Amino acid sequence: MRRRDLLILLAAIGAAVALPPVLRRRGRSFDFEPLPGLPGFRRLQSGAISGGSGGDFILTGLHPASARQTELRQQVVQDPCQAVFDRIDGSEDRLPVAVFTDYNCPYCPDLSGIVVDLIETGAPIAVTWHDLPVLGPRSEAAARAAIAAGAQGQYLPVHQRLMRGVLRPGDASLVRLATDFGMDPDRFLRDVTGPATENRLERSAAVAAVFGIIGTPSLLVGRTLVVGEITRDELLRLIELEQAVPFAGCPAG
Description:
alpha/beta, Glutaredoxin, 10 helices, 11% strand, disordered N terminus, DSBA-like thioredoxin domain-containing protein
């Protein structure tokens, strides 16, 4: 009996030790809720999030939007897929994913790193980046620099740099950034405050307002809006779910 009791005890200990990894692999169940006014889209409340008063999309409903914002938001409602994902290419068998980040958000570097790693390892996703400077002027300055870098094909490298460090104020820092990434400094300085950058920020703000994104990080994975942090394993599970049942609301082509 003693030997049997010992074996039972050892088995119980082994099960207790093995259980957490199993649970981690299975993960929590997803609890989706529909997004009001956006048929077919749904929301998944996730982890920690940063918010602020850096843009009127954060305080939607508390004060009126500008005429330009009102117009852009109407365009988002009319064609949310185009607004969020830029384009849906039927020739690519990849799931559209949109990522909303702020360079001063404490949670954004981790999510950004996960998404970049998935891109680099060949995950079947097509990523659109939305800079959402919700945490004030420093966030907006960094967002403008990243968008301007995109005009010279350097968005992602600059995005990664800014996620890891601080962009000091002033043109000298912008010139150094442009030089580090082989960009034309004069063009870069013009683009930072240019109309194309302004338009991109306004459009991302309109998307955020329509989808109810009140902070960062957030991302749209196919039809599912994820607000807050999400682990790599959870994101991979969500990608698999979205690929299993394609979203008819965003037709390819």
